Predict the structure.
Amino acid sequence: MLKTLDARLAHFGYTHEWLRVGVITESGLAAQLSEFEASDDKNKEHYRCAAFLQYIKGLTAVSDSVLNSLLELTDVGSDGCDLRHNRAMELVLGDLLTDQQMTRLLERPNLQEHQCVRRAVDRAIIRLRMHAEGLTDEVFSSVCDLNDQVMQLLVLDRHDLRRNHLEWISQHGHNRALRNRSKTMLQSRKFRSA
């Protein structure tokens, strides 16, 4: 049994920074250790990931200082898993960040070239704009520039979709399925008369 706090932190690959930020607590660490000992899951990175997800689940927004602290968390486990990119993705997907925070996220050296994080941030920024402004021509232009299947599907399901949007997707959509769906929608009564 791991008796000291340092031994428990090291066992799972946490640093004291995880405690200071509040992602894991001493009682949470003890609970994870009990679960680890009783479970068949001996992948310690799963426990770090679970602690992080549990922490951000309780948030409604993230201040710049907390964001910086969360992005500075390191993994020092014997498993060798570095979950920084995963944590950045979870913050973006959790709709906790402002568009300015997401833009700054992409400026971080360890995330700059990570394509999945970049794509998630681009999608999230466009979704935020779409929510705030509606599907304006300017927002739609951002969707076109991204040329992303997920965003084009989102556009096709919007109530404020316009004929010119459908025409563009029918010609330039990310894949054949999107182009065909757009062509079918153009034939509907709603868009034939538009």
Remarks:
- The chain has two domains: 1-133, 135-194.
- Residues 1-133 form one domain.
- The chain has a mean pLDDT of 92.
- The CA atoms of residues 11 and 87 lie 20 Å apart.
